[in-house]
TrEMBL record, chains A, B, C, D:
Pathway: Amino-acid biosynthesis; L-phenylalanine biosynthesis; phenylpyruvate from prephenate: step 1/1
Gene Ontology MF annotations: prephenate dehydratase activity
Domain ACT: 208-285
Annotated PROSITE patterns: ACT, PREPHENATE_DEHYDR_1, PREPHENATE_DEHYDR_2, PREPHENATE_DEHYDR_3
Classification via CDD domains: ACT_CM-PDT, PBP2_Aa-PDT_like
Gene3D superfamilies: 3.30.70.260, Periplasmic binding protein-like II
Annotated GO CC locations: cytoplasm
The protein's name in its UniProt record: Prephenate dehydratase
Species: Cellulomonas soli
EC numbers, comma separated: 4.2.1.51
């Protein structure tokens, strides 16, 4: 049981979601208050409103790419930062209420992302089924569990659910592990209020939102050069529309390294000077723990030596 | 009425959708067979399977960015090309069955994109409503129109619909024009089979899918330089996961200019040589008709002169 | 007369040279000790050895380019810096001892640079004359003035001399102003010991010597990007062999701006980190007084704001 | 003996020069007419005027860098091309007329380049000697050999000469091999009329003269990118003043590869389109025979495949 002072985590619930699996990696249920939310935006807003201390939300998947609701919610509004990332394997099970047989399935409830991730399997095995969209991966499971009679109408015959949802909702498995990509991963982040940035671990990433100064040829190139000239690698870059006109983009970026590191700090200052909008969304340990390649001339000590050298030269020292 | 030989257009139907509005810009109903489809992927697949000759699908909006289902469907699978683009203003009306009052609305059916585009208005005026996801902007309207009794349960009280859907479905307007962004546009494209590329008009764009050679620092920079060094501007660039691992991206790109133009052709050959995957998705007239800026040294005639000059120099001419 | 404490200036003498004209722009003869030297290297070494406080030497001309003896002497050896630059128009007069006629001229004494700068005139008017190389522009004039008899053998019949040398050496003008380029200029610099860098004036230049990290494709490009990404323009870049192998170059660079300026300082730190050798040869006022173009995001105040902003973000401030 | 139809080679003579050593590598005396010239410019002009078929001239040394007279003579005027390069080790001997002792030497005749290359040895061993400039490395040797009496005045006591000049001029060696850099090389080129470009050997270089479109920041960067984006390495780049104003440069460039190669041809076409002046000075075998690194996507076959692919795509082929 969590105590009244336990941290409160908002997440895309209910029990059985991938997000809950991510949350369990972050903090055990007995050490926190789990606050399930109907959608990602609500989870993030729960932190902004003070209802929750933290949110755990999906930010990217190997299959679907950036989670636009997360990216867009973090890019504007009251400032929040990312404090940690966790990776969760993504797999789906076709499940139903007890008694349903695979050959009876005509309508499958599924979150649109789940539907996409099982598309090839469904085309091959159930080419004629209809997609009934669900607001989450577990909503259909909850509907099955909550039905008042065995023959109560559900609006669907089966559902694509996370494997972890089978047992709590007492579902029958019709086909396990049917995701088209057996190695799919979703990356989740812990969102909190700005404050102390987690200390560098040597294998960190930094997330930023950047608007380009104009939409001329070369603006994106110039932005990328701010990183390249300081030897900072980008592990993720996604464009999102700013929303005021076609052709105007905001970029969501993950850079290798920590804002406390010299090369990252100088690159971000370069963005700050040249771009109309830069939002720092946090520096935090990489889930894979792999330290970045530090190119010649871009280590912290080389930056410090260069600064000391420049100061001496400015004061008249010989070179 | 369309004749048996009229071209068949698949699109996200039914009547009243924004896609239908786009399709009407392309071809009048009497000159074509309109084939409504339940989703974008189905519309595209209808062309691949031969059920339709063309598809009209949304590819990008000022609010939501790239339509990932469209981008992903075109990026892989049997080759298709874009033949034309059309722009449609995006606006939403909150509508319901006759007799419903605004103060009675608790559940609003809306396609997720519509929901997002009215988020601020909804927060301000109906902060407690619940989102009931719909598979299209007109599906709830069709459900209202099709209900067998005035009090038949719909699962929602009102819907966000395109203004054009109010009349055909005999809806009552509760609040007109409530999209947060009054200037929102969606860009639609006409998809067809590869074949004759539309002739250059002087104001064209070219759509490409490109995979980077590796995920090292600088691979994206190098790709952009292939365009920059030939003076080709990019009006859209979006990253999509390749799907096999985090950090591996496919880029969907709109370049100013036509593949028949020298600078575009040379840039695309550069991509072809350096990138593991390049798919040409078509060169077609820009909807806004604005010709691109042609920088010094990048016009077709300058390319031709340079080629003639090079040939003469290779053959021993003096310079 | 100069007092014992007057500053001592070494320069390529004797009286009448272009360098003396440059020196007169720097300091009047009554305020300094003029120390004529036989060549540029000797003038520079006079400062190193303590014989002189300063040297005035040519560094670049519109016709001949960089003065390699100056560039090479400054690039290695005990550190010296440039404190000021002055521009001197370059013009030549064909002159001789009294009594000599143009049609008698067979051999012309001239410093090789002078010879080059009058090449077209000489080809047109005296195609058969022979070049007798001189160590300075005034050495032949001095020989004429110093001859003990009117018919004493000189080894040459006439000389290319600066216009200012005609009178002091009592020469006869055979053809005035015969330089091929009427707008030729030579840039001279005042060389001194490292110490207080002249304060920024708003229109300064900074001279550097830089070795590239390797001779791979792109090393020069990377070096130039260190400047470009900070908006620093280069007004001069010259390659000089390092001397150990063909294909290994040292670059002599003039950058717009003062080392005390943020953008210049950051660019130089970038060079210091990436290049095996960087020598600062001074920041000093531009002779033309034209302030550099400061691009958006590269002013000192923008650098300072970015640094303050970064510090606050590193300490947890919201963005 | 050479026959009347033997090719005529102009070179910086007389016998014993380094240039003669280079010429002997190119063609044996019995197979050609050797036409010694007083200077590099005369040798080049001899080809232009038809007096010679070819010229052999120094273009670059490890110590002195580019030979500006050669670079400038080739950059303008009637077009000539480079057909071959040869490398000659550079070494100097301090020699004199028989009977002269080292301790008697006060004045040393030397070509300015020779003087520079022995500077450190001279400073250490003969700090007080005076430099008497010579027009070539062998001119003083010829004067010694030609003197009519043992005590005829020469104007100098000893000379810096190529080792090969000792014997023909019957000199006495005072100090052998005194060049400061024991590994010094000079690169010579064979200059001829434009015509058939030597066929590619797989290890070639291409020499170009290029003017930048303007002197803005980034013009040099843009020029270098024309090479970089096609994977062409530069082994030499030297700036020369255009001569009309300070800050305006012509660049003399050696690029790895042959103009017949695709990547080189495309890069040169890029220069032709963007730069106000491009002169092709030849493609010829590298003296060291080392083939260039060909980066992924820049081989001839990849260029050809890309061109074939582009043509098919322009004609409507699927990708």
């Amino acid at each position: 049981m969590s105590t009244p002072t336990a941290p409160r985590y908002a997440y895309l619930g209910p029990a059985g979601t991938f997000t809950e699996a991510a949350l369990r990696q972050v903090v055990a249920p007995q050490d926190a208050v789990y606050l399930p939310q109907p959608d990602v935006v609500s989870a993030i807003e729960a932190v902004r409103s003070g209802t929750a201390d933290f949110a755990v939300v999906a930010i990217e998947s190997t299959v679907e790419g950036g989670v636009t609701a997360t990216l867009d919610s973090l890019a504007v509004g009251a400032p929040l930062v990312l404090l940690r990332e966790v990776l969760v394997p993504v797999q789906f099970t076709l499940a139903a209420a007890p008694g349903v047989r695979l050959e009876d399935v005509r309508r499958i409830a599924a979150h649109p992302h789940a539907w996409v991730q099982c598309r090839r399997w469904l085309s091959a095995h159930l080419p004629d089924v209809v997609h009934v969209p669900a607001t989450s991966n577990t909503a259909p499971a909850a509907l099955i569990a909550a039905r008042t009679a065995v023959d109560a109408p559900l609006g669907f015959d089966a559902a694509l659910v996370p494997p972890a949802a089978v047992e709590p909702y007492r579902l029958t498995v019709l086909a396990p592990d049917i995701a088209d990509n057996a190695h799919a991963l979703t990356r989740f982040v812990v969102v909190g209020h700005p404050g102390d940035v987690p200390a560098p671990t040597g294998a960190d990433k930094t997330t930023l939102v950047v608007h380009l100064p104009d939409n001329e040829a070369g603006a994106l190139l110039s932005m990328l050069e701010q990183f390249a000239v300081r030897g900072v690698n980008l592990s993720r870059i996604e464009s999102r529309p700013i929303g005021d006109a076609l052709g105007r983009y905001s970029f969501s970026i993950d850079a290798d390294g920590h804002i406390a590191e010299e090369r990252v700090g100088e690159a971000i200052m370069g963005l700050h000077r040249r771009c109309p909008y830069v939002r720092f969304l946090g520096s935090y340990p990489k889930a894979d723990g792999v330290p970045p390649v530090v190119h010649v001339g871009t280590s912290d000590s080389e930056f410090v030596h260069a600064r000391v050298w420049l100061r001496s030269v400015r004061e008249g020292a010989a070179t």
